[in-house]
């Protein structure tokens, strides 16, 4: 059976002229590992914070921030006001039963399309609430501007954007980092090096909700928003020997590119003296284990960044408008880069025209991107300016390889390709 692969090479060029935000250094290893050796803990406390040194923030500090009730009302009001480009749904509930609301933004919300999906996740740590505020600003800005702003329109028409403002509403209510069980949710995911988080019965409901979300929906890329530093963090977050050093994942160049999009679109992140260019490899900063970022990349095919968006974990509410302005273009450009770079296409049968389950790989990069189930569409992020040899796979059949130079179309490939320069319904033959 002959297979055709639709490739669309769309490249986004940018010209670019110690903190404890991800968690206390002493608790960066899961609770069952310390100083390189195994120690015994009961399942009920193994991912609990070693000690809650941070006292609860005063209610005065929370003034001007949305309560959980306020957030729910804001999300539902957004759904009513912007119903033509959005839907509201919940991926589960917190320990205390608070719904984990998600806003989906698209010109066809809730419908499956051969388009990539991007997600933003805020408030992973309860005492880092800036992200939840900024993500509501982002949703409302897109709704207010997509008819008149080209970047907002590009996102609405070409991406399914999903926004989870608060992954940890209980921690927010309690004014502390962990959830209602005092578990750090960014240490609660299965880890590639250590098995301490493999017991699903000990996993927190918020963590399970996110994991089930990614089993049901295929995301090409993602970012979680944190506070306590100013840097874009990328995989890997941990090292096999538990030492602090640069530990690159297979897509290191692509992740550096993604992190640089955020950093250089930001007001001053790229000017950091602590982090060159405002980006960092997580393990080089300091290793953590059980993090959400690495799990996304390994198990869900999702390229996720950890964004530290404010030096102060819980700044005064009167600083929120400034923080929004500092981060607005970063959030927009990162989401939009999903369709402005990389290789995008579909796998289907030339005999029947039916989509076929398959995947694509890049020569020299040990990572496989699976095609979607409905349309067999794939969205493979890549750093621009390099020549890549792309290989498509269907079941046990491997097609011939094709080479592309990102940054320009490859006119000698003999493939059918779809780009934004052609009518959407007509493939352009190169």
Descriptive notes:
The protein is α+β, with helices and mostly antiparallel strands. The chain has two domains: 3-11 and 343-429, Carboxypeptidase-like, regulatory domain (Immunoglobulin-like), CATH 2.60.40; 25-340, Zn peptidases (Aminopeptidase), CATH 3.40.630.10. Helix content is 25%, strand content 23%. It is built from ten helices and 21 strands. α3 (130-145) packs across α10, α4 packs across α10 and α7 packs antiparallel against α10 (320-340). Residues 1-19, 24-55 and 407-430 have low confidence and may be disordered. Residues 1-21 form the signal peptide. GO terms for molecular function: metallocarboxypeptidase activity; zinc ion binding. It comes from Salix viminalis (Common osier).
